[in-house]
Known about the structure:
The protein is 41% helix and 19% strand. The chain contains seven helices and nine strands; from the N terminus they run H-E-H-H-E-E-E-H-E-H-H-E-E-H-E-E. Strand 8 (216-221) and strand 9 form a beta hairpin.
Amino acid sequence: MSSDKSVHAIGNPVKIEIFSLLDQGDCSFDTIVAATGKAKSTISAHIKELEERGLLSSHPDPTDLRKRIISKSAITIGTLTNQDRDLRSKLQIPKDINHLQTSELFRTIFTTLKMEALSLGINVDPLLKRVGKQIGTDLAPLFVQDTLEALLKNIAQFWNEHKLGTVEVKSLDPIIIEITDCIECSQHPITGKIECHFAMSFVKTLFSHYYQTEVTITEKTCYAADDNKCTFEIIVPTQ
């Protein structure tokens, strides 16, 4: 975890679970207790320690001043893992790399960077999500238009022009977009799970800006899950 002043390693599984919950947004103390299944005294002790380290903060619930709302004061920049450390050996790097087109070179660099990190026991997915959100925030004014159809058209054109893949809109209710030849994961070794963390965060940010509220995005299919495309479903909360 990275706070304003320092970087902290979190190893306790309960603390990690608390941060995973807070990644989705602020939570009440009671919600954290219920989600973790731990005793109130245990959760209280963990939250107190994390507050003292500057990683969490809390404030009274405006709807019930007897309760506390817990917030993150730090960001997750990566996790240490022993899983998938052998994926680098399964990565197929083109032999004639000197003659790759720019998009193919970036695709190879992107995937190799992630595989090298995993081989060292570092999962950089949280960092990729953060980068996707930041770039999405910076570029949102270029994408967001008056209509959903115009937004989707801009996304498809952007992906095509920059050789990120081919975007096709499959549904408007719910919003489902399909990406073939995905630059993020089409060369990714098969892991059996979704791996488009940068693209998901980027797309989620664009739609959140368009709707002026936090949307939910789910990756239904992925090349890394042994599918032949990446499919994202965007759910807009009911107003």
